């Protein structure tokens, strides 16, 4: 992770609304409108923060459809652990994600296919 990326991640995690988005989406997947209500911030602020959080792998996005066929994105926090390490030589942020069953199944199928 570059110094600029590290600084950006720390800034994101230092933002109260970004942390609230992570906390809410750890409970369940939520749309931007739901996050706007739950976090008491504007939809524009939600989108700015979800874009940043997603770019660093802190949020997963998924397209969903309502009964009328309209589509919208939902967000789910995926990190199981965020570790900030600082030493004399450098500083770093490590984001650990839980392995999802679908990913494990895909990996298994790929291994079987390769044999």
From TrEMBL:
InterPro entries in the cross-refs: ArsR-like_HTH, WH-like_DNA-bd_sf, WH_DNA-bd_sf
SUPFAM superfamilies linked: Winged helix' DNA-binding domain
Protein name per Swiss-Prot or TrEMBL: Transcriptional regulator, ArsR family protein
């Amino acid at each position: 992770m570059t110094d600029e990326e590290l600084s950006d991640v720390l800034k994101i995690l230092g933002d109260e609304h970004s942390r609230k988005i992570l906390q809410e989406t750890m409970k369940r997947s939520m749309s931007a409108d739901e996050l706007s209500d739950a976090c008491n911030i504007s939809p524009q602020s939600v989108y700015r923060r979800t874009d940043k959080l997603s770019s660093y792998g802190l949020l997963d996005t998924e397209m969903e459809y309502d009964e009328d066929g309209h589509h919208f994105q939902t967000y789910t926090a995926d990190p199981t652990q965020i570790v900030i390490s600082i030493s004399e030589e450098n500083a770093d942020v490590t984001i650990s994600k839980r392995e999802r069953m679908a990913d494990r199944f895909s990996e298994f199928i790929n291994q079987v296919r390769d044999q």
